[in-house]
Amino acid sequence: MSLIYENKVPSSYRIPFIAKVKEIATKLGINPNWLMAIMHWESAGTFSPSITNSIGATGLIQFMPSTAIGLGTTTTALRNMTAVQQLDYVLKYYLPYKSKITNYVDCYLVTFFPAAVGKDENYIIQTSKLPASLIATQNPAFDINKDKKVTVGEIATVMLRKLPTEWIKEFVKKKQ
């Protein structure tokens, strides 16, 4: 069975990468397509372990510097790994949330804002240190109605709209 965006993974490491994504998904009890779609989105379609955004997040799922340290590494080390090696840290990141991931949107929320997993669609993404307006400004794709707030519902809408139509059924079903 081929995975979504499998053909976007560089051919030089595609086979071992896809095998490891399937292995990780099995360990997490989730659909491997969810991971592939998230890594495609977060790495700007490159599946590059070294891609870095403007605020210093790095790699396949855009590890923040503090997240990398919490996982026992650094963003510099992550940037210097192969994509297949970095998948070990993708697994390490998701494992504590294993029981909370029931669908694709939950899986993405673990990546983007774990506190929002399981919240209703009107839940506003914010913390006492990160106001909703800053999160909306830094993530304009998710602020659909341009109200300077990002909700779980807006994230779900955007993430599902980004998927090719023929793959939607893989993303709307719950974990089995």
Automatic annotation (TrEMBL):
This is Transglycosylase SLT domain-containing protein. Residues 22-74 form the Transglycosylase SLT domain. Pfam families: SLT (PF01464). It comes from the Bacteria. The lineage of its organism: Bacteria, Pseudomonadati, Bacteroidota, Flavobacteriia, Flavobacteriales. It comes from Flavobacterium capsici.
